[in-house]
Specification:
Helix 2 packs across helix 4, helix 3 packs across helix 4 and helix 8 packs across helix 10. The longest helix has 23 residues. This protein folds into 2 domains: 92 residues, RNA polymerase sigma factor, region 2, helix turn helix motif (Rna Polymerase Sigma Factor, Chain: A); 82 residues, Arc Repressor Mutant, subunit A, CATH 1.10.10.10. By secondary structure, it is mainly alpha-helical. It is globular and about 55 Å long.
C-alpha cells in the first residue's frame, strides 16, 4: 500500500515537473537529496564534492525527466543518475581511490569494550560506517540492497553490471564485513544472506 501511495505521489511530481512546476522540483529535491548524498558519499566524495555532484545529479534529472518512462522506480532512476554523476566527478577531478582506511586503529582501541554497550541504533551506524570503507562497488551494492531495498535486477541496472556481478559484489562485501566486524562484535555478527 505504501509503495502504491509513493508511486502515485511520484507520478504526480512527474506530471507537475513535465509541466514546468518549479515547486514540484523543489519537493522532488527535498525528498531525494539524502539518498543522492548517500550515493555520492559512498563513492568517496568529500562534502564539497558531494554538494557539486548532487547539484549536477538534480540538474541532469531535471533535464532528463521527459525521458523517464516509469520502467523503474523514480528513486532507482535517480540513484542511477547520481551514481553516474559521482563516478564522472571522480574521473574528472581526481584519481580513483578505494575507501580502505585501516581498521587497525579501531581494533587496537583499548576502549573497544564500549562498543559492546552500544545500543542497536549505534551498532547499525557503526556497521554502515564500516560498509562505507569497503571497495566502492561492494559498498554501493550493499547499500542499495540493504538500506535502499533495491532488488539485484535494479542494482544491476543502476550500476550497469550483470546480475551475477552484483551477486558477487554482495557476497564479497558481506564476507569482508563479517571479517572486519567480527573483531568488534566478538564474532557474533550476521551480515546478511
Amino acid at each position: 500500500m505504501a509503495g502504491e501511495a509513493e508511486k502515485g505521489q511520484d507520478e504526480g511530481w512527474l506530471g507537475r515537473l513535465l509541466a514546468g512546476d518549479h515547486e514540484a522540483f523543489t519537493e522532488f529535491v527535498d525528498k531525494y537529496k539524502e539518498m543522492v548524498f548517500l550515493c555520492c558519499r559512498t563513492l568517496g566524495l568529500d562534502e564539497d564534492e558531494i554538494e557539486d555532484a548532487a547539484s549536477e545529479t538534480f540538474l541532469a534529472a531535471y533535464k532528463a525527466i521527459r525521458r523517464y518512462r516509469g520502467q523503474a522506480e523514480l528513486s532507482t532512476w535517480l540513484w542511477s543518475i547520481a551514481y553516474r554523476q559521482a563516478v564522472n566527478y571522480l574521473r574528472k577531478n581526481r584519481k580513483e581511490q578505494l575507501l580502505t582506511e585501516p581498521y587497525t586503529q579501531i581494533a587496537n582501541n583499548k576502549n573497544a569494550g564500549t562498543l559492546a554497550r552500544l545500543e542497536s541504533k549505534e551498532r547499525a551506524e557503526f556497521v554502515w560506517r564500516a560498509v562505507e570503507r569497503l571497495p566502492r562497488v561492494w559498498a554501493v551494492a550493499i547499500i542499495l540492497y540493504y538500506r535502499e531495498g533495491k532488488s539485484i535486477a535494479e542494482i544491476a541496472k543502476i550500476m550497469q553490471k550483470q546480475k551475477n556481478t552484483i551477486k558477487t559484489y554482495l557476497f564479497r562485501g558481506r564476507k569482508r564485513l563479517k571479517e572486519l566486524l567480527a573483531d568488534f562484535f566478538g564474532g557474533d555478527i550476521d551480515v546478511g544472506r
